């Protein structure tokens, strides 16, 4: 099926419903509520010979149509977020594993130990995602690039500055969009600047030059009080869990390391370290976490196993300075095959660089910031109030 074709069942539904006297507005709403995408319904009406009738419906119910179109964006974003989270978790596992190594690989051990002693550092990185997303009927190209840069006060984490940009072409949008989000954290308060482009995407009224929003620990406590209690409970068990993970890592050895060739990076001599994940051993480690320690649920283990079957980790490398034994760069490529509940197929490329070790940073607090919770509640209350009155 090419991008201009739609399933026969969709066209038959439109024709049958109209011949039965159902209004086009009710037909369109019913199809969108059943999960059909806006573009598919539009093409279905066109191929059924009722293109002008669909245009009238779209013009008469713009808020409803726009809300359903955003459902597609949400699915894509959720898919990307899931994949990004898996990358972060993978990096976290490797970080923890490296810290627990008791081997003769002095290069890796020294690099990790040196990072732990740092007070400040700067970073910049990119995550590129290319491939296709499927809604069950059509495939849509995905080309996303997330760039991030900033600096951090490690002793008082997450104190620091950050700028993250997202460039993407999403289905249904006429052109590439670029969203840049600036964030700052100091003295218990988190600040982030929302650009107008991001506001338009999520339905928030943001001025042309953007808006600085803020929230502090009290806001988090009021919104996530129960969640924070769960986190506190988990932290009480963290020491025991770390010991369990270290024991299982030594038992299964799911990660292997080997020296690569030496190279230059920004004028510095680097030792390349190649990292390889053994999927069978990693699955065995998680199975024991599930069966013996009940730290992983049956559902999570099944999802993890399915994920491992459909991803391939490549080009997983660390760049370590030969003189100072500091970690300067991490690269990783992940090839993903689409499967049920994970409708993305393509590849992800991660490139993270660290620099300016132990150079003090300065966090400027933005003036005239607005409390994020109050702003969002007010904006969405007005939006959905108007929406409810119309429909």
Describe this protein's structure.
The structure is a single chain. The protein folds into two domains: 8-60, no CATH class; 72-380, no CATH class. α3 packs antiparallel against α4 (51-60), α8 (217-252) crosses α9 and α9 packs antiparallel against α10. It is 46% helix and 30% strand. The chain starts with 7 loop residues before the first helix and ends with a helix. With 391 residues, the protein is of the alpha+beta class.
Short key terms for the protein model shown above:
single chain, 11 helices, disordered C terminus
Q: What's the gyration radius in Å?
A: 25 Å
Total E-strand runs? 12
Q: Could you say which overall geometry the principal axes of the C-alpha atoms support?
A: globular
Order of helices and strands: HHHHHHEEEEEHEHEEHHEEEEH
The low-confidence parts are: 93-104, 223-228, 383-391
Q: How are strands sequenced across the largest beta sheet? A: 7-8-9-10-11-1-2-3-4-5-6-12
By secondary-structure content and strand pairing, the structural class works out as alpha+beta
- Bin the helical content: 40-55%
Biggest β-sheet: count, sense, barrel? 12 strands, mixed
Mean pLDDT: 76
> Number of helical segments?
11
Total number of domains: 2
Q: What fraction of residues sit in β-strands?
A: 25-35%
Q: Termini separation (Å)? A: 35 Å
